[in-house]
Amino acid sequence: MKKFFMTFIALAITLSFSHCDENLKQKGTPEYISEIQQWHQKREDRLRKENGWLNLVGLYWLKEGENTFGSANDNDIKFPPNAPDHIGTLILNDSIVTVNIDQDVKVLQDSNEVNSMILKNDLEENTTVLQNGTLRWFIIKRGDRYGVRLRDLKAPLLNEFKGIDIFPINEDWKIDAHFVRYDSPKKVEIPTIIGTTEEDFAPGYLSFDFNGKEYKLVALQSSNGFFIIFADQTSGKETYGAGRFLYTDEPDSNNNVIIDFNKAYNPPCVFTKYATCPLPPKQNYLHLEVVAGEKMYGAGHSN
Fold first, then answer.
1. How far apart are CA 243 and CA 264, in angstroms?
2. Could you tell me how far CA 275 lies from the centroid of its own chain?
3. Average pLDDT, whole number, for the chain?
4. CA angle 268, 107, 98 (to 5 degrees)
5. Intervals of the chain under pLDDT 50
6. Which of 155, 186, 276, 298 is the most buried (most CB within 10 A)?
7. Does 85 share its domain with 171?
8. Does 180 lie in the same domain as 32?
9. What is the per-residue pLDDT across 78-97, written as a single tens digit (0 to 9) for each?
10. Is 70 within a domain?
11. Upper half-sphere CA count for residue 182 (Cβ side, 13 Å)
Protein backbone atom coordinates (compact mmCIF):
# COMPACT_ATOMS: atom_id res chain seq x y z
CA MET A 1 0.00 0.00 0.00
CA LYS A 2 2.94 2.32 0.59
CA LYS A 3 3.96 1.68 -3.02
CA PHE A 4 0.49 2.76 -4.15
CA PHE A 5 0.74 5.90 -2.02
CA MET A 6 4.15 6.88 -3.44
CA THR A 7 2.95 6.24 -7.00
CA PHE A 8 -0.15 8.28 -6.30
CA ILE A 9 1.85 11.26 -4.98
CA ALA A 10 4.35 11.09 -7.84
CA LEU A 11 1.55 11.11 -10.38
CA ALA A 12 -0.12 14.06 -8.69
CA ILE A 13 3.09 16.09 -8.64
CA THR A 14 4.15 15.41 -12.21
CA LEU A 15 0.86 16.25 -13.90
CA SER A 16 1.46 18.82 -16.62
CA PHE A 17 -1.74 20.84 -16.17
CA SER A 18 -1.63 24.12 -14.27
CA HIS A 19 -3.75 27.16 -13.50
CA CYS A 20 -2.98 30.76 -12.68
CA ASP A 21 -5.33 32.47 -10.26
CA GLU A 22 -5.46 35.56 -12.46
CA ASN A 23 -7.40 33.42 -14.95
CA LEU A 24 -9.95 32.51 -12.26
CA LYS A 25 -12.63 34.89 -11.12
CA GLN A 26 -15.15 34.88 -8.30
CA LYS A 27 -18.59 33.96 -9.59
CA GLY A 28 -21.96 33.53 -7.90
CA THR A 29 -24.79 35.35 -6.24
CA PRO A 30 -23.88 37.60 -3.30
CA GLU A 31 -25.82 35.24 -1.02
CA TYR A 32 -23.88 32.20 -2.19
CA ILE A 33 -20.50 33.90 -1.96
CA SER A 34 -21.33 35.03 1.57
CA GLU A 35 -22.41 31.49 2.48
CA ILE A 36 -19.07 30.02 1.36
CA GLN A 37 -17.09 32.78 3.08
CA GLN A 38 -18.91 32.08 6.35
CA TRP A 39 -18.41 28.32 5.93
CA HIS A 40 -14.69 28.83 5.39
CA GLN A 41 -14.38 31.12 8.43
CA LYS A 42 -16.10 28.53 10.64
CA ARG A 43 -13.76 25.87 9.26
CA GLU A 44 -10.71 27.93 10.31
CA ASP A 45 -12.28 28.64 13.70
CA ARG A 46 -12.72 24.89 14.31
CA LEU A 47 -9.04 24.30 13.56
CA ARG A 48 -8.13 26.69 16.38
CA LYS A 49 -10.33 25.01 18.98
CA GLU A 50 -9.08 22.71 21.76
CA ASN A 51 -10.10 19.65 19.72
CA GLY A 52 -8.79 21.15 16.46
CA TRP A 53 -5.72 20.08 14.52
CA LEU A 54 -3.41 23.05 15.12
CA ASN A 55 -2.41 22.14 18.67
CA LEU A 56 -1.09 18.62 17.99
CA VAL A 57 2.50 18.28 19.20
CA GLY A 58 3.06 14.53 19.39
CA LEU A 59 2.04 11.06 18.24
CA TYR A 60 3.68 8.08 19.96
CA TRP A 61 2.96 4.44 19.13
CA LEU A 62 2.77 2.08 22.09
CA LYS A 63 4.63 -1.19 22.36
CA GLU A 64 3.01 -4.15 24.07
CA GLY A 65 3.63 -4.00 27.81
CA GLU A 66 4.93 -1.02 29.77
CA ASN A 67 5.64 2.39 28.19
CA THR A 68 7.04 5.04 30.55
CA PHE A 69 6.34 8.63 29.50
CA GLY A 70 7.44 12.15 30.38
CA SER A 71 9.96 14.72 29.16
CA ALA A 72 13.13 13.03 30.48
CA ASN A 73 15.36 11.19 28.02
CA ASP A 74 15.07 7.87 29.84
CA ASN A 75 11.35 7.52 29.08
CA ASP A 76 10.05 5.15 26.42
CA ILE A 77 7.82 7.98 25.23
CA LYS A 78 9.42 11.40 25.37
CA PHE A 79 6.99 14.28 25.80
CA PRO A 80 7.99 17.92 25.08
CA PRO A 81 10.12 19.89 27.62
CA ASN A 82 7.09 21.56 29.25
CA ALA A 83 5.91 18.15 30.56
CA PRO A 84 7.08 16.74 33.92
CA ASP A 85 10.23 14.62 33.70
CA HIS A 86 8.41 11.41 34.59
CA ILE A 87 4.61 11.31 34.41
CA GLY A 88 3.88 7.61 34.68
CA THR A 89 3.46 4.39 32.71
CA LEU A 90 1.10 3.37 29.93
CA ILE A 91 0.50 -0.38 29.79
CA LEU A 92 -0.76 -1.98 26.58
CA ASN A 93 -2.14 -5.43 27.28
CA ASP A 94 -3.65 -6.86 24.12
CA SER A 95 -6.29 -4.20 23.30
CA ILE A 96 -6.50 -2.61 26.76
CA VAL A 97 -4.48 0.49 27.68
CA THR A 98 -4.04 1.31 31.37
CA VAL A 99 -2.26 4.33 32.83
CA ASN A 100 -0.45 4.51 36.17
CA ILE A 101 0.54 8.03 37.25
CA ASP A 102 3.58 8.66 39.42
CA GLN A 103 2.72 9.81 42.96
CA ASP A 104 4.34 13.23 42.72
CA VAL A 105 2.62 14.21 39.42
CA LYS A 106 -0.82 15.78 39.10
CA VAL A 107 -2.78 14.50 36.10
CA LEU A 108 -6.49 15.24 35.70
CA GLN A 109 -9.36 13.63 33.85
CA ASP A 110 -12.60 15.64 33.87
CA SER A 111 -11.21 17.71 36.80
CA ASN A 112 -10.56 14.52 38.80
CA GLU A 113 -7.04 13.56 39.80
CA VAL A 114 -5.88 10.31 38.23
CA ASN A 115 -3.83 7.58 39.89
CA SER A 116 -4.60 4.55 37.74
CA MET A 117 -7.32 3.86 35.17
CA ILE A 118 -8.22 2.11 31.93
CA LEU A 119 -8.21 4.53 28.98
CA LYS A 120 -10.91 4.54 26.31
CA ASN A 121 -9.47 5.18 22.84
CA ASP A 122 -10.72 7.62 20.19
CA LEU A 123 -12.90 4.98 18.51
CA GLU A 124 -14.88 4.46 21.71
CA GLU A 125 -17.56 6.67 23.22
CA ASN A 126 -16.35 9.07 25.91
CA THR A 127 -12.70 8.89 24.90
CA THR A 128 -10.48 9.38 27.97
CA VAL A 129 -8.55 12.67 27.82
CA LEU A 130 -5.84 13.29 30.41
CA GLN A 131 -4.29 16.67 31.17
CA ASN A 132 -1.31 18.24 32.85
CA GLY A 133 -0.84 21.99 32.54
CA THR A 134 -1.48 22.98 28.91
CA LEU A 135 -0.98 19.39 27.70
CA ARG A 136 -3.82 17.06 26.75
CA TRP A 137 -3.40 13.46 25.59
CA PHE A 138 -5.50 10.42 24.70
CA ILE A 139 -5.21 7.02 23.06
CA ILE A 140 -5.88 6.51 19.34
CA LYS A 141 -6.48 3.17 17.62
CA ARG A 142 -5.44 2.70 13.99
CA GLY A 143 -5.87 -0.82 12.71
CA ASP A 144 -4.21 -2.99 15.35
CA ARG A 145 -1.91 -0.18 16.54
CA TYR A 146 -2.43 1.99 19.62
CA GLY A 147 -0.81 5.36 20.13
CA VAL A 148 -0.80 8.50 22.28
CA ARG A 149 -1.96 11.71 20.60
CA LEU A 150 -0.67 14.78 22.42
CA ARG A 151 -2.02 18.32 22.29
CA ASP A 152 -0.61 21.55 23.71
CA LEU A 153 -3.12 24.37 24.13
CA LYS A 154 -0.19 26.78 23.73
CA ALA A 155 1.26 25.09 20.62
CA PRO A 156 3.25 27.50 18.40
CA LEU A 157 1.14 26.74 15.31
CA LEU A 158 -1.88 28.34 16.98
CA ASN A 159 -0.10 31.71 16.77
CA GLU A 160 1.56 31.03 13.41
CA PHE A 161 -1.68 30.07 11.66
CA LYS A 162 -2.91 32.94 9.48
CA GLY A 163 -5.62 31.10 7.59
CA ILE A 164 -5.90 28.94 4.46
CA ASP A 165 -5.91 30.25 0.91
CA ILE A 166 -8.85 29.21 -1.23
CA PHE A 167 -9.60 29.34 -4.93
CA PRO A 168 -11.92 32.15 -6.00
CA ILE A 169 -15.46 31.15 -5.06
CA ASN A 170 -17.29 29.94 -8.15
CA GLU A 171 -20.87 28.72 -8.08
CA ASP A 172 -20.19 26.64 -11.21
CA TRP A 173 -18.47 24.17 -8.86
CA LYS A 174 -21.74 23.61 -7.00
CA ILE A 175 -22.72 20.61 -9.07
CA ASP A 176 -25.86 18.51 -9.33
CA ALA A 177 -24.99 14.83 -8.96
CA HIS A 178 -26.91 11.57 -8.90
CA PHE A 179 -26.46 8.90 -6.25
CA VAL A 180 -26.27 5.37 -7.64
CA ARG A 181 -26.81 2.81 -4.92
CA TYR A 182 -25.03 -0.54 -5.05
CA ASP A 183 -27.12 -3.70 -4.70
CA SER A 184 -25.30 -4.14 -1.40
CA PRO A 185 -22.60 -1.93 0.22
CA LYS A 186 -19.18 -2.52 -1.35
CA LYS A 187 -15.99 -2.88 0.65
CA VAL A 188 -13.55 -0.05 -0.04
CA GLU A 189 -9.88 -0.10 0.92
CA ILE A 190 -8.76 3.25 2.29
CA PRO A 191 -4.97 3.69 2.46
CA THR A 192 -3.60 6.01 5.15
CA ILE A 193 -0.62 8.31 5.30
CA ILE A 194 1.05 6.10 7.93
CA GLY A 195 1.12 3.15 5.54
CA THR A 196 -1.82 1.17 6.89
CA THR A 197 -5.04 0.27 5.12
CA GLU A 198 -8.50 0.68 6.56
CA GLU A 199 -11.69 -0.89 5.26
CA ASP A 200 -15.00 0.87 4.89
CA PHE A 201 -18.23 0.10 3.10
CA ALA A 202 -19.65 2.41 0.45
CA PRO A 203 -23.41 2.39 -0.15
CA GLY A 204 -22.90 3.67 -3.70
CA TYR A 205 -21.28 6.35 -5.82
CA LEU A 206 -22.02 9.87 -7.01
CA SER A 207 -22.16 10.52 -10.73
CA PHE A 208 -21.92 14.04 -12.17
CA ASP A 209 -21.23 15.81 -15.44
CA PHE A 210 -18.75 18.65 -15.85
CA ASN A 211 -18.00 20.31 -19.17
CA GLY A 212 -19.65 17.45 -21.02
CA LYS A 213 -17.81 14.61 -19.29
CA GLU A 214 -19.07 12.16 -16.68
CA TYR A 215 -17.20 11.64 -13.41
CA LYS A 216 -17.78 9.29 -10.50
CA LEU A 217 -16.89 9.44 -6.81
CA VAL A 218 -17.23 6.57 -4.34
CA ALA A 219 -19.29 7.89 -1.42
CA LEU A 220 -18.73 6.78 2.16
CA GLN A 221 -21.66 7.06 4.56
CA SER A 222 -21.50 9.85 7.14
CA SER A 223 -23.94 10.76 9.88
CA ASN A 224 -25.80 13.32 7.76
CA GLY A 225 -24.93 12.34 4.22
CA PHE A 226 -21.79 11.28 2.38
CA PHE A 227 -18.06 11.69 3.02
CA ILE A 228 -15.79 11.84 -0.02
CA ILE A 229 -12.00 11.57 -0.13
CA PHE A 230 -10.81 12.63 -3.57
CA ALA A 231 -7.80 13.78 -5.57
CA ASP A 232 -7.72 15.67 -8.83
CA GLN A 233 -5.32 17.27 -11.29
CA THR A 234 -4.49 20.13 -8.92
CA SER A 235 -3.23 17.62 -6.32
CA GLY A 236 0.47 18.10 -5.65
CA LYS A 237 0.52 21.60 -7.14
CA GLU A 238 -2.11 24.09 -6.01
CA THR A 239 -3.64 21.61 -3.58
CA TYR A 240 -2.38 18.91 -1.22
CA GLY A 241 -0.80 15.97 -3.06
CA ALA A 242 -2.70 13.39 -1.00
CA GLY A 243 -6.13 14.78 -1.84
CA ARG A 244 -8.92 16.66 -0.10
CA PHE A 245 -12.11 15.91 1.83
CA LEU A 246 -15.71 16.83 1.09
CA TYR A 247 -19.12 16.23 2.68
CA THR A 248 -22.53 16.23 1.03
CA ASP A 249 -26.07 16.05 2.33
CA GLU A 250 -28.25 12.96 2.00
CA PRO A 251 -29.78 12.42 -1.47
CA ASP A 252 -33.32 13.60 -2.02
CA SER A 253 -36.24 11.32 -2.94
CA ASN A 254 -34.97 11.16 -6.54
CA ASN A 255 -31.42 10.31 -5.40
CA ASN A 256 -30.13 13.74 -6.41
CA VAL A 257 -27.22 15.19 -4.45
CA ILE A 258 -25.37 18.50 -4.58
CA ILE A 259 -21.57 18.32 -4.59
CA ASP A 260 -20.15 21.70 -3.66
CA PHE A 261 -16.43 21.66 -4.41
CA ASN A 262 -16.13 25.16 -2.95
CA LYS A 263 -16.32 23.30 0.38
CA ALA A 264 -13.48 20.90 -0.45
CA TYR A 265 -10.99 21.09 2.40
CA ASN A 266 -7.54 19.89 3.40
CA PRO A 267 -7.00 16.78 5.54
CA PRO A 268 -5.32 17.42 8.91
CA CYS A 269 -1.98 16.07 7.63
CA VAL A 270 -1.55 19.37 5.80
CA PHE A 271 -1.12 21.10 9.16
CA THR A 272 0.65 18.49 11.27
CA LYS A 273 2.77 15.37 10.93
CA TYR A 274 0.98 13.94 13.96
CA ALA A 275 -2.24 13.12 12.09
CA THR A 276 -3.10 9.74 10.52
CA CYS A 277 -5.05 10.82 7.47
CA PRO A 278 -6.96 8.56 5.10
CA LEU A 279 -5.98 8.83 1.43
CA PRO A 280 -8.34 8.75 -1.55
CA PRO A 281 -9.36 5.28 -2.70
CA LYS A 282 -8.02 4.66 -6.19
CA GLN A 283 -11.54 4.99 -7.62
CA ASN A 284 -11.67 8.65 -6.51
CA TYR A 285 -8.92 10.15 -8.62
CA LEU A 286 -10.60 12.71 -10.90
CA HIS A 287 -9.00 13.45 -14.26
CA LEU A 288 -10.18 16.98 -13.82
CA GLU A 289 -8.75 20.19 -12.33
CA VAL A 290 -10.99 21.07 -9.40
CA VAL A 291 -10.04 24.72 -8.99
CA ALA A 292 -12.36 25.22 -6.04
CA GLY A 293 -12.09 24.92 -2.29
CA GLU A 294 -8.96 25.02 -0.16
CA LYS A 295 -5.46 25.27 -1.54
CA MET A 296 -2.31 23.77 -0.09
CA TYR A 297 -1.19 25.01 3.35
CA GLY A 298 2.53 25.21 4.12
CA ALA A 299 4.75 22.22 3.31
CA GLY A 300 2.16 19.60 4.29
CA HIS A 301 2.86 16.24 5.84
CA SER A 302 5.98 14.26 5.22
CA ASN A 303 6.44 10.78 6.58
1. 10
2. 7
3. 91
4. 75
5. 1-20, 300-303
6. 276
7. no
8. yes
9. 999 999 999 999 999 999 99
10. yes
11. 15
